[in-house]
Request: fold
Amino acid sequence: MSEMLSGAEILCRALVDAGVEVIFGYPGGAIMPFYHALPDHPQLRHILVRHEQAAAHAADGYARASGRVGVCVATSGPGATNLVTGLAAAHMDNSPVVAITGQVSRPMIGRDAFQETDIIGITLPITKQNYQVQDVTELADVVAEAMAVAVEGRPGPVLIDVPKDVQNQKTAYKVSGAGGQRSGKTRHPTPDTRHPSPGSLEDGVRAAARLIKGAERPLIMVGHGVILAEAYAEVRALAEKTGIPVITTLLGISGFPDGHPLHLGMPGMHGEVHVNRAIQNADVIIGIGLRFDDRVTGNTASFAPQARIIHIDLDRAEIGKNVPVAVGIVGDARDVTRRLVAAVEPRRCERWVEHIRGFVRTRAEAYRGDLSPEAILASIYEASHGDSTIVTDVGQHQMWVAKLYPYQRPNTHITSGGLGAMGFAVPAAMGVHLARPNGTVWAISGDGGFQMNMAEMATMVQEGLPVKMAVFNNGYLGMVRQWQQFFHEKRYSCTPIWSPDYVKLAEAYSIPGYRVKDASELADVVGRANAQPGPALVEFMIEQEANVFPMIPPGGSLSEPIEAAPAGAASE
Amino acid sequence: MSGVPSPSAHTVAVLLDDALVTLNRAFGVLRRRNVPIEGLALHPSGTAGVSRLTFVLKADAVTTDRVAQQFHKMIGVRSVMVLANDDFTTEAKR
Reply:
């Protein structure tokens, strides 16, 4: 005879059984039974955030850093809707997150009850799957299934909506497991999508190897799929066996070591000129785990006009979605790349690599107090001995970090790429710390994005999360200002942004705060912040109207970048 | 679903769980991509818990194939068939 448990107790038990150790959340009316049961499950460490958006971003950061499911919890109505941005970010960047929301009791659903919202309807397009639990007997299986769905195949967020009366309902706790009625009913991966037949896989690999053999100007493009599949050694082996240079997309950064002689850098809208010119001149592109996003391709009609594309992706719906593909291989990046390494013949591409090096442009921007992004990032790299995880927000600083930070270790660059959600860095860095408690985490934000979620400093203090925060303060919403400069006649509409005194603000949260105005202070201040046992904040007073160069105008061709003006003219 | 489909019409037959949320997701794919629907039918498939959803889409072959690919990866979808407006029947291919 199994013991009788409430739905709330079953939720906790099922999370423990699924191996969950940390949950990020915020209590409220419709989730109170869960919070009542939670203290009886000390295996679940609860992080009390200051806004549910931060819970979702933190769960996302935890998931990206650990490869495990990140869990967030919120109440119904406003609690649930506040999760939406974080779930959308996790959806766009394929991060395994499970969100648990309270819901009004079943008899009240559909009657516009207090704090009722149709969170299932709201999150349908931004979740991989979602469930509203109608009976407590389903609950344990739904949790187990949601945890599995979030990580399997192409990862993504899953939402479980639990009405309050279901949390209070009692039943025996048991998981029916695989083959149980519930999982048999709802989970039915189409076999050809997730398990391509070995024959077609081998055909694809052989066709790809033939294309690579005949190529004169081949390129490897590495995306987030390489990090999700941990295909680092395989990609490196492919590059080193063939001598083919490697491009890393924004989410592929740290999937291949930055200092490697075959590493070219980031492509696309803010990619270096030589990287984009390499793409435009390539005759074969091997794309591994990327979706040829518009920020990577620019105008697809003029993208890589001479290239035949080999596209390796877990999701066959991605093959040919954005760019025409010569060889599409559906499969796990690690497995397919390993097969490709075995199938290709050793070769060199020295003349081609040398040709690309000839496209390299030296940078020409000037910065106030010599406080260049390079200098700031070098000081963070030095202070943490290259051993920290960098979490970035969205905007100019994000592009500077992507282009300039010398990533050496895999999966140490975490950012909101697809959704581009400002406010991501600070809460996501809290999740990264919990996944990597022994490493240093730097959350780098602009003065705009930092102000979106800076209340999470209180979470860091209360929960003991030693996140180091860097704020690039230029007094502008810098990336939007840059677009206004180039595309809107320098009409700086609503982009100047006032900031509080961040040093005093940090002190108000009992966090050490520092301000850097000149490059000469960098090593000392960043070193001291990095050495703090708890959280620390450093504000960098950077050039106000510095731009991210080069830049491809939206919808433009990779062949036509806007480049930096000569030195001294940057802040005209 | 009576009458002759227009020349640019394609029929997509989807076998999926008979859960409202799965149906809702399927419609979401069409709504998001703004694909006009010429006809629509939902029937039991003959297997318990599985429905057959048939769309006639006013869309060319390429658009129809993209839609089919999106259906393919939905959880709760068991199979997707694309039927061209002549008698030729084919499994949705990559």
DSSP finds 25 helices and 20 strands in chain A. Chain A touches chain B through 26 residues (CB under 8 Å).
